[in-house]
Amino acid sequence: MISNVIFVIILIATILFFYRNVRIIARNIKLGRDVEIKNNKAKRWKLMFKVAIGQSKMVTRPIAGILHILIYVGFIIVNIEILEIIIDGITGTHRLFAFFGPVYNILVSSFEFFAVGVVIACIIFLIRRNIIRVKRFWNEEMTLWPRSDANIILITEIFLMSALFTMNASDRILQLRGLEHFVNVGTFPLSGLLIPLFNGLPDNTLIFLERFGWWFHIIGVFAFLNYIPYSKHFHVFLSFPNVYYSKLRPKGEVAIMPSVTKEVKLMLNESAMEPVEEENAEELTFGAQKIKDLTWKNLMDAYSCTECGRCTSSCPANITGKRLSPRKVIMDRS
To answer: Residue 111: which of 80, 132, 71 has the closest Cα?
Structure first.
């Protein structure tokens, strides 16, 4: 009973803190200049499903793309189990959905295969970033925090998946020993490989390991949820609206700026008189000097940036040794 109360308190605190952080980000985005993006709704929905959900842009770089998709899909599918864990935590039940029988076992088994995929992909990404040191992850704008941020997330995901395996392996042994509360739901194919390591342990130790894995995983997910708004990984949420509101114009097309057009016309017309300064006239600005010179979409772009460096590694100026970095421009906005 006490553990249920503690869980509910942690759950409520997690939701409230996440809501607060999201509201702060939403407020910051709304500081930008207003711009209407309401055209071609059908095309925008199609693009969102293709890019944000279907991850179509990722496969242009096959190795990183496939690994990213594996983590993306795996983490989402594995965390379907979070629904059961939350209900169990509130009500005090254990594996509430076990009444589905063989279907439940198939689902949990599939979760384990995806979890292994996530762990493998995370390890490869850690090697690419810290041992192989792929160049775009070590540009000058990639200071200690951006590099640490990526490593924190990857290591956290490995620990979260490991906690699931520990929980399932301990749970399975307790099921086989016939302990009350541990309903028999069948064999777990991958966590079952850990059974020989745990099989000689007494019941109390196994119960501790099962509970430790359970609490570690759910608290880790809650902490992860509230870390995300401070991380580049907030793109997990913002990628959907950001892709929906993306430009549909042809690549490279530059929007006409009335202020620039006016200045050019004055420059080309030598007989034109110098413009008379009107009282209270709005000062023309070129580029962005302050946050309100950017649109809300520009600010959403900054919060959606994954800091992957693909833009910089494809930039002609950067490739030829110039110091221009499109990634740094985006990162500096946030």
So the answer is: 80
